[in-house]
UniProtKB/TrEMBL annotation:
GO terms for biological process: adenylate cyclase-activating adrenergic receptor signaling pathway; positive regulation of MAPK cascade. The lineage of its organism: Eukaryota, Metazoa, Ecdysozoa, Nematoda, Chromadorea. One of its GO terms (cellular component) is plasma membrane. Belongs to the G-protein coupled receptor 1 family. It is a multi-pass membrane protein. The chain crosses the membrane at residues 39-67, 79-103, 115-137, 158-179, 199-218, 314-336, 351-370. Keywords: Cell membrane, Disulfide bond, G-protein coupled receptor, Membrane, Receptor, Transducer, Transmembrane, Transmembrane helix. One of its GO terms (molecular function) is G protein-coupled serotonin receptor activity. This is G_PROTEIN_RECEP_F1_2 domain-containing protein. The keyword Translocase does not apply. It comes from Strongyloides stercoralis. It comes from the Eukaryota. SUPFAM superfamilies: Family A G protein-coupled receptor-like. It is found in: Cell membrane.
Length: 442
């Protein structure tokens, strides 16, 4: 200990101050290379490996689910595929090299690979963030302008969104390669800490898209609330009477029974569900029943659509919240470091960086949790049941829409075994008796 203090005291009497700066940099590098304890290194290795593996498998399953299930082959889901491609690329190209740099505690791959890696990091992470922004814009337009935007929501328009995402990502990543000088200080690979570039990159990559997403999501919630209030006010149904003599309208409530206009026109048997009516009453019944059936079908379709949109809003809200929690510390630290307001330790930089990377892992998990359309394909693919994937998805969709199919049990006492020939003769006799009666009436 005394010898080391003597060497430090010798530095104070050196005539050239630049030599002191060089030695301090060397001491700083030595302090960066402090070995990690084995227990902490094992935990870090397990956690980071889980993040990488789940990112790759989860985002790959999102792409396979959209391309294998016909129900998911819709233009809006192409934005989800683009998001999954960006997140998968982060897990494949960016995370493994960051994993190596994390355990080496310094950059060992040279300046050229450092430039390529940082450019890929900026491009892919920016593309992932801009994808979320365009998904929010798409969801906002379909809620606030459903009729107009539904006709414009084509594959061509979605591909324009995707093109804008990648063009914006390349603008952020190419700028430091072309216009800014590149220096590797203390064996650390990072983008140039130019204040103007950091303001430009953080605003274009995070703060701008986040502000757009928060504002649109707030407007989305207000529009959904107004729509729900309108649907509550229009719960009753008005139908005009077919007879012009009775011009008054009758207010009808939504029921599961048939609409009966009068006791004389229509009579039903108590034992069964068959209705016996004359030709005049049947004509009247056709006029009255068709609007009621069409209205109930329209209401069921609107309810199904509103439930689907509500689930999409919940999923989008969870994705946005997760995105802000994961990336906000990183972009705050980027501005703070560029203005040299704080000297953050290395472990804090690594923790914030991997918290941002984990957003690419969480997106497919959110789909699996909150979106039933992705949950069933994910379950089948995890069980390696690719051959029966389509049939299982169709069965789940039918069961969810119409309910489970209940097998009808027939009592043995009610079943009478009859020969096939006897039933054929009886059916032929009925056909011959019905046809002449119809011809006589006509």
């Amino acid at each position: 200990m005394s010898e080391t203090f003597e060497t430090y005291s010798d530095y104070d009497f050196l005539p050239n101050n630049e030599d002191v700066i060089i030695e301090n940099d060397l001491l700083l590098n030595v302090s960066h290379n402090i070995p990690i304890k084995p227990f902490i290194a094992a935990i870090m290795c397990i956690v980071v490996s889980i993040i990488i593996v789940v990112t790759l498998i989860g985002n790959l399953m999102v792409c396979l689910a959209v391309f294998m299930v016909r129900k998911l082959k819709q233009p809006p889901n192409f934005l989800l595929v683009n998001l999954a491609v960006a997140d998968f690329s982060v897990g494949f190209f960016v995370m493994p090299i960051a994993f190596l740099s994390l355990f080496e505690n310094r950059w060992i791959l040279g300046e050229t690979l450092c430039r390529l890696w940082t450019s890929a990091d900026l491009t892919l992470c920016t593309a992932s963030i801009l994808n979320l922004c365009f998904i929010t814009v798409d969801r906002y337009l379909i809620i606030t302008k459903p009729l107009r935007y539904c006709a414009q929501r084509t594959s061509k328009r979605i591909f324009i969104y995707i093109l804008l995402v990648w063009c914006g990502a390349f603008l952020v990543s190419v700028t430091p390669l072309i216009f800014l000088p590149w220096k590797m200080d203390s064996k650390v690979c990072q983008v140039p800490q130019n204040q103007f570039y950091q303001i430009y990159a953080t605003f274009f990559t995070f703060y701008g898209p986040t502000a757009v997403m928060v504002i649109l999501y707030w407007k989305m919630l207000k529009a959904a609330k107004r729509l729900a209030e309108k649907e509550e006010r229009s719960t009753s149904l008005y139908l005009e009477d077919y007879d012009r003599k009775n011009s008054s309208s009758k207010k009808l409530q939504k029921t599961n029974s048939y609409l009966i206009t009068s006791e004389n026109d229509l009579s039903s048997s108590e034992s069964g569900s068959k209705f016996f009516y004359n030709r005049r009453s049947s004509a009247f019944l056709n006029v009255v029943r068709v609007p009621l059936i069409s209205h109930t079908r329209r209401n069921s379709q609107q309810n199904h659509h509103s439930v689907k949109e509500n689930k999409a809003r919940i999923t989008l809200g969870v994705i946005m919240s997760t995105f802000i929690v994961c990336w906000l510390p990183f972009f705050i630290m980027a501005l703070v470091k560029s203005f040299k307001l704080i000297d953050a330790p290395v472990w804090l930089d690594n923790l914030i960086l991997w918290l941002g990377y984990s957003n690419s892992m969480l997106n497919p998990l959110i789909y699996c949790k909150y979106n039933s359309e992705f949950r069933v394909p994910f379950r089948e693919m995890l069980c390696c049941r690719f051959r029966t994937l389509k049939s299982v998805v169709r069965h789940e969709s039918f069961t969810k829409k119409y309910g489970p199919i209940k097998p009808q049990k027939i009592k043995e006492n009610e079943v009478e075994e009859k020969p096939v020939t006897q039933s054929i003769k009886k059916s032929s006799i009925q056909e011959t008796t019905i046809i002449p009666t119809l011809s006589k009436k006509n």
